[in-house]
């Protein structure tokens, strides 16, 4: 899943595409580089960020939504939003998925939209809000608690008519978690298989990698690739990334290794 941030304040400068022309160009790059999905967002959810209005958020992403429509949606378009009006306009314009970082806590009606349109719905765990999530996050057992909250969100979505095959779950790396929490989630990611839904993981250039590597976002590509490879080996189905081309190549090798492990690749492949 290739990231397209139509924001002036995302944590990774290389991922910001504030001007409409930049954002549309990035959309086409994400597709050309081999992404299976494109994820566009118009509101930063970095730690400490503040929300923007629905009108501002829509104005930021509308050029990308329109570019995807004109291109005939060569890959499904996901919209990273917690707002009903933004989600409704995006789905009406042809978007295929909603990526909700609040797992329906902020706006349960997103499930109604997903059900009505038959759209994908990513339910991501976050402790608190983007503005507060990194203020001393605490868990007794992060895996058990986060899995439980995601199970509640999956049940809520189902109760509002979302079919099971439409739902993905995301434990929310970096969203209300310490370094230790993030590493525990990755180390025990296989336990989220109990939810029975595909797992999406987004580690791309995040702060916990900087804590390990002692470097800014621009120097975290190798760490991102390592974290995402570990996640896929533990059962993740989708990785959300800034660096599409590098991930396509890395995952091609990883897929070959996993196929060999399962005995589904020929000796001559």
Outline the structure in words.
It is a single chain. This protein has about 270 residues and is an alpha/beta fold. The protein has a single domain, classed as Alpha-Beta Barrel (TIM Barrel). Helices cover about 40% and strands about 10% of the residues. A 6-stranded parallel sheet has the order 1-2-3-4-5-6, covered by helices on one side. Strands 7-8 form a two-stranded parallel ribbon. Helix 1 links the parallel strand 1 and strand 2. Helix 1 packs across helix 2, helix 2 runs parallel beside helix 3 and helix 3 packs parallel to helix 4. It is globular, with a radius of gyration of 18 Å.
Number of strands: 8
Shape: globular
Terminal-residue CA separation: 27 Å
Largest sheet report: 6 strands, parallel
Strand order of the largest sheet: 1-2-3-4-5-6
Secondary-structure arrangement, i.e. CATH architecture = Alpha-Beta Barrel
> Would you give the CATH topology?
TIM Barrel
What's the name of the CATH homologous superfamily?
Answer: Dihydropteroate synthase-like
User: How much strand?
Assistant: 5-15%
Secondary-structure class: alpha/beta
Low-confidence stretches: none
Q: Radius of gyration, Cα only, in angstroms? A: 18 Å
Overall average pLDDT: 94
Helical run tally = 9
Q: What is the number of independent domains?
A: 1
């Amino acid at each position: 899943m290739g990231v397209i941030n139509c924001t002036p304040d995302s944590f990774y400068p290389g991922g910001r595409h504030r001007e409409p022309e930049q954002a549309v160009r990035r959309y086409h790059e994400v597709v050309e580089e081999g992404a299976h999905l494109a994820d566009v967002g118009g509101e930063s959810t970095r730690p400490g960020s503040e929300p923007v209005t629905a009108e501002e958020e829509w104005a930021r992403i509308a050029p990308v939504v329109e570019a995807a429509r004109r291109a005939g949606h060569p890959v499904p378009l996901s919209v990273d939003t917690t707002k009903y009006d933004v989600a409704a306009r995006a789905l009406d314009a042809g978007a295929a998925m909603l990526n909700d970082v609040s797992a329906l806590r902020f706006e349960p009606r997103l499930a109604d939209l997903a059900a009505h349109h038959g759209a994908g719905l990513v339910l991501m765990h976050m402790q608190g809000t983007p503005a507060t999530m990194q203020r001393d996050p605490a868990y007794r057992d992060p895996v058990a608690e986060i899995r439980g909250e995601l199970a509640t969100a999956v049940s809520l979505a189902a109760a509002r008519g979302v079919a099971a095959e439409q739902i993905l779950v995301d434990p929310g790396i970096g969203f209300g978690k310490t370094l230790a929490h993030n590493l525990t989630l990755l180390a025990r990611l296989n336990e989220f298989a109990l939810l029975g839904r595909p797992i999406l993981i987004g580690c791309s250039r995040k702060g916990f990698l900087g804590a390990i590597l002692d470097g800014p976002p621009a120097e975290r590509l190798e760490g991102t690739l390592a974290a995402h490879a570990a996640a896929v080996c533990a059962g993740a189905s989708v990785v959300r990334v800034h660096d599409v081309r590098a991930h396509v190549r890395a995952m091609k090798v990883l897929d070959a290794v996993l196929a060999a492990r399962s005995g589904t690749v020929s000796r001559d492949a």
